[in-house]
């Protein structure tokens, strides 16, 4: 009897341990990667992207800095209350001659602080948590009023993507990217207005998977991040 109880307890513990490891496998992998980069620089980029659909197609916008079509969205901003944590974790702003704008959660850290930063990010403290700002900014060229956009658009959280740490050829350092994905339900008449601007286009899921689409007889690049909104 006692032997059966002990066996059941051991099985229950192993099952719990296995389930915990499985559900936290990416976090464990990132932790192990951070140990290997203890004193190396890691670029952090924390952004949100919108899935905007019409008739089964996905809305993309032409990039400002890179010649490609990409999801509507942008980088989170941090607030002044973050400065103390920023100092403790020895976080540095990315060089302004790249993509950085004041307050962007595009930062440089060391591997030894990476997990602490991710823990902080998940608390949602000291940073932007609303996502309407980038939606407004990115749809401005379509001349949709801010009031109409706020009143008529429904925004729902879909998922979070935390990429594995990998070397960025562009930034010449290891990089950790985080993306929160939201669905923005926009009325059809507003979407028709958006498409009147040549900055936007609707593409099929297959085009996103191929990372290219054809517009006006020319092949156009689609960003790799677009796969996250499918």
Describe this structure in words.
Helices cover 34% and strands 30% of the residues. The chain is α+β, with helices and mostly antiparallel strands. The strands form three sheets. Strands 1, 5, 6, 7, 8, 9 and 10 form a seven-stranded mixed beta sheet that branches. Strands 2, 3, 4 and 11 form a four-stranded antiparallel beta sheet that branches. The radius of gyration is 21 Å and the shape is globular.
Strand content: 25-35%
Mean pLDDT: 86
Q: C-alpha Rg, in Å?
A: 21 Å
Q: What is the number of E strands?
A: 13
Number of helices: 8
Low-confidence stretches: none
- How much helix, percentage-wise, in residues? 25-40%
Helix-strand sequence? HHEEEEEHEEHHHEEEHEHEE
What class do helices, strands and sheet pairing give?
Answer: alpha+beta
Terminal residue distance: 53 Å
Largest sheet: 7 strands, mixed
The shape, in one word, is globular
Notable traits:
230 residues; alpha+beta; seven-stranded mixed β-sheet; four-stranded antiparallel β-sheet; 8 helices; 13 strands
Task: List strands and helices in order, with pairings.
Blueprint: H1 2-23, H2 25-36, E1 41-51, E2 53-54, E3 57-62, E4 69-71, E5 73-75, H3 83-88, E6 92-93, E7 106-110, H4 114-123, H5 132-139, H6 146-152, E8 154-162, E9 166-168, E10 173-185, H7 188-194, E11 200-203, H8 205-210, E12 212-215, E13 218-221
Parallel strand pairs: 1-10
Antiparallel strand pairs: 1-5, 1-7, 2-3, 3-4, 3-11, 6-7, 8-10, 9-10, 12-13
